[in-house]
Sequence to fold (214 residues):
Amino acid sequence: MIVTIVGGHGQIALLLAERLSAAGHSVRSTIRKEEHEADVRAAGGEPVRVDLEDPLSDLDAAVEGADAVVFAAGAGPDSGPQRKRDVDLGGAVRLIGAAQAAGVSRYVMVSTVGTEKAGSAGEMGPYLEAKLQADVALSKSGLDFTIVRPGPLTDDEPSGTVACAAHFGRAGEIARADVAAVLAAVLETPQTIGQTFEVMDGDTPIERAVATLA
Fold:
């Protein structure tokens, strides 16, 4: 399987590239900066220079021939509302168009919990609104989507166990490495197509937790 990860230098993206490449898959990871190439190669990915905020930057070439795409890009916590719209929403929508144009039907979105609170979340509002609109756009795209909504992220050691549900209604952290493992499992589980779910720390082995979503 050939997987294009957009936002390829992010922490989850690098962990996912490492996991996928170790399993024998080919990974293309989009990056904005040349200095990120070494990190991507060390994780087993092929770096591809793409700037989601530049309409002339060639995202289509990064997607062409892929079997699946993963949107893992983000403007970051220190960015303003406009950049969040440009990257978290605009970048995700741009990837939808590139996937459609290339005939790549499988699209996995890294979203977030809390999107239902977008209108009343204060400083987090623009980020949650951008994520919500991106999720809606993907769900209406006609692509074979899965939307993964992790809880607050940590750098803890992976536990290998999680809890997955359409909506928990409660807070719950999750290690970035466990999110990467969930994404890898989703790509290997066609039954997750059409699913939107939250994921956080739990007691169920990841592959079993993902399989129960079908």
In short: The CA atoms of residues 4 and 28 lie 5 Å apart.
